[in-house]
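Sample intake sheet
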Amino acid sequence: MKLSKEKIASLIKESVGHTCDPIECCVRLVAVADLPSQFGQFQICGFVSPCDDKEHTALVRGDVVDKEGVVVRLHSECLTGDVMGSKRCDCRDQLLESLRYIQKTGEGVLIYLRQEGRNIGLTEKIKAYALQDEGFDTFDANVILGHQPDERDYGVAAHMLKSLRVKSIRLLTNNPEKIAQLKAHGVKILERIPLITKQTRYNEFYIRTKERRAGHLFGENSRVTSIKEIERISGETKE
C-alpha cells in the first residue's frame, strides 16, 4: 500500500497552510510522485526549506502516515559517493543498504538532505579532500577551511517527518548526533538500527575518524540499539 491521492492532498494542504514555532525551520511539502526503483516501488516527496533555501526529498515506501516505529534513514547528499562511486567514504554503501533494508521491511522513509560535505558545499568539500590528501583528517580539514567539523542540521529532517505525520521512528544510523538533534526537535525514537558497511583501505581512516572524533557507533558499540545506552556512550565520548 502507498500514500493515496487523498492523503497526499491532505498532507500538502496541511504543510502549506500551517505555521511553525519561530525557532523551527518551517519546511513545506509541495509534491509527491511515484518512483519505481531497483529497490521496489517508492514515492518521492519534494520539500522546500526557506531556512536554508534548499530543496530536500524523502523516499517513502508504504503508507507511513500516523504510523509508529517507521524505519527512517537520514542521508546527507554526497555527490562524489552517491553518484560517482567514490571509495573515500561509505556514503553510497550506506545509501544503498538503507534502501535495501526499507525494501525488505516493506515500509519506511529515506530522507535525502541537501547537505553536501557535512553542509560545507561541494567545492569546499573538494578543498577538504585536497587537505586530506596531505594527511589531515576530515574534521581538521573542515576547520582549516574555516568551517565547523560538521555543520549539518537535522531540524529540517525532523520537520519533514512531522509533515508526513510519522508518529515514531526506528532510526538507521551510526551517528549519535542525529539521535540527539531529532529528539531535541520532538521526534520520538524507539530504537537505533545499526548501519554497518564494509570497510576498505580507501575509507578505513575516514570511518575510524568518525568513530574517534564524533563517537559514531562502530567496533564494540556497533550493535548497541538502546537509545538510553547510546546517549550514555555519547556523553562519555564528549567528556
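Comment: The chain is about 40% helix and 20% strand. The longest helix spans residues 91-105.
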